[in-house]
Amino acid sequence: MRRSDLVVALATVTISALSGPLGPMGVAVARELVKASNSVWDRTSPERQLRNTVQASIEAWAKGEKVPADIVDRGLGWAVEYVQAAGGQYGLIAEADFDPSRAAASVLDHVKGTDRYWGTELEYAVAERAVGATYQALCARLKTEGGLVLAAVQASRNAVLASVAQLHDGLLGVADRSDLCRYLRAKIVDWDYSPWTLRSPALLERDLQLDTRDGQPERVAAAEALAGRGLLVVLGGPGSGKTWLGQRYAREAAQAALAELEDPRVDPALVEIPLLTSWAGWALQPSGGVDGLVSAALPATSEERIRRFVLRPGARVLAVADSLDEAGVGENRARTLLRSLPGPVGWRVVVTSRPEAWHTTAPGLRPNEGVRIGTLVDLSYPEDVDGYIRQWFTGEPVDAERLIKQIANRPELRSTATVPLLLTFYCMLTEQDPGQDLPWTRRGLYRAIIDRLLTGGWSVDEPERDLEECRTILQDWAWGAVAEAVTAVGLGAWPNTITTEKTRSNLERGLDHVAPKQQHSTMYDRTHVQRRFVHRALVEHSVAEKIATFPAAKAAEALLPHVWFDPDWAATVPMAIAAHPERDTVVKLLWAHHSTTLTPAQEAVNTRLEDVLLEAATQTLPEDWGEAGRSLIHDLRAVAIVRDPQIVVRSARWTSSNPQAIHAILDALPGANWRVVGGLVGVLPALEPTEVERVVARDAILAAVPGADPFAVGGVVGMLPALVVTEVERAVARDA
């Protein structure tokens, strides 16, 4: 509100409160009160004349204040709210013998008792002086002609308040400014928490980008992706930072909302309030839809006023629904919830999910003016990766440089360090033992992290924990939770929480680090308790490890129903194959469903089987396989490189088939458009091409430039340096 509006509002509220309290209405209702008063009080009425007197006193005081204008305006805003909340009834003023100091004190004493931030900023002192100036003029006028003025105010009160009754009633029982500020301050802390480290995620965040492919490739910063959209869908693989980004959206919205609410001139009804919940929590709500989302995000009884605030018509809300892939319900239930988005007018919604779960749940939803669907881009190497490491080890720069050097010297770590979760794990393990060689497989990495969590944070006199027994318990818990968790058509519907039995006391506290209890000790019977793994990736790892203990035939039987079109099992199936000691036999049993008789359905079956085997190859070495399995994977790498370059590059340790993969790339380059050229040539350096092969690739890049999108030329040309190794090649590239 402008200065003039604030002055009129303060004078109007003060006079309207003479005949009875108004309640904590806020600046929105105060603005409507001014409009109503102007229509009811004629220019010569006693109440209008009194308001003019009080208004003149406030204006004169404001001009004389020797503080910045913005502070004066904020002080006026607080004064409006204080007089509304405390009231300035005629009876109280009369009891004070029309003494302005005592009358003002009756208002301010009420405020000082309820606002714990009173006096922390200059604007509070300004508000106190504004209230004093208001009652200075009011009391003098009331002392001489109080009866006449009071009668006029009482006579017009009903007409004035009737005009704002609907707006006022809509705010009864909902959160006020102080409620919202308390909520936001608490959530800023909650949403700046990491289960992996005591460090604040806000201190470790790097910029994330979303790759939105709605016709043309477009990369936008995560901060910009939500602009102008009612629904933003953030897709990403395991550990890509989806939850990290969802919490960041919510936290930054909370910080922005809190900054707005700390300005009394801003109407709380106009502030966007953030909510954060999981799809699993949302799906458990019987009401479903937006009501269910709000109940899941604000489950506490103490949050009832916040719930009413965000559910009122016209509320501005940013709702983050995290981890669709962990909803633990069937597709139909998830689709029902999805149909309620993006919610009422004024809402913005962020949904995070793994791609498979999203495409299964919402196959028909396409980007449009109100919807943006984007895929998280990996962190950049070395800029983001090295920056993250240095921020993590701020106090230990030697350890930071040791980890940076190890990643730089090991290609298999470079290819995975760009995944935020895996980079976090590398930092955790280095923190534990700075001199260790990091595991190169996800299996080794996840096992090391579980061991780190099981043994971390204990005093030296803690009972010895049997790590092997703890791992077995975790595997049993995970398998017990998912083995029968299927939909009516047999697809996985993994629960978000698991119910476990009590374990030995010397194991219990270590297990709590990996799968924390989700209930207070007074809420469970101590023989059974609900738990939740700290990350879905550790559930998938534990399930895979359990299946790897089965005989080959039983393992294949357990995996077979989930190889195709099953998002919950997409990561676990190849992990289980890679971990199984008889992986060749398991693959042989699954490969029986691969066929050379091609129909569209069979092609889909074949492609998924091939992808599963190639993904298993990324987590194993050629010597881990028998001759048949090894030969099959080498052949698949050469065939799949054009269809899915990244999955083949991740198995670059299978060096014997790298030449065939390179030849397949070079054969596909002539006549290909610039997008295909960019995607294929971009992976070549990881396969270590020869000088002749690098020349062919460079020629393909230069041939693709004329047809490239002007905005993409830089990216295409930027691939050249990686294909220029010798000084002779550099000279040729410069001449070209």
Q: Can you give a write-up of this model?
A:
The chain is an alpha/beta fold and 736 residues long. The chain folds into 3 domains: 3-172, no CATH class; 181-376, P-loop containing nucleotide triphosphate hydrolases (Rossmann fold), CATH 3.40.50; 559-568 and 582-735, no CATH class. The protein contains 35 helices and 9 strands. Strands 2-1-7-3-6-5-4 form a 7-stranded mixed beta sheet, with helices on both faces. A two-stranded antiparallel ribbon has the order 8-9. Helix 15 links the parallel strand 5 and strand 6 (347-353). Helix 1 crosses helix 2, helix 8 packs antiparallel against helix 11 and helix 32 (674-681) packs antiparallel against helix 33 (691-704). The chain is elongated and about 105 Å long.
Beta fraction: 5-15%
Helix percentage: 55-70%
- Taking Cα atoms only, what radius of gyration do you get, to the nearest Å? 33 Å
Name the CATH superfamily assignment of the largest domain. Answer: P-loop containing nucleotide triphosphate hydrolases
| Number of strand elements | 9
Q: Which assembly state applies to the chains in this document? A: single chain
Q: Assign the CATH architecture of the largest domain.
A: 3-Layer(aba) Sandwich
Low-confidence stretches: none
Provide mean pLDDT, rounded.
84
**Pairing-aware structural class of the strands and helices?**
alpha/beta
Number of domains: 3
The neighbouring-strand order within the major sheet is 2-1-7-3-6-5-4
- Separate helix tally: 35
Protein name: NACHT domain-containing protein
Organism: Tessaracoccus bendigoensis DSM 12906
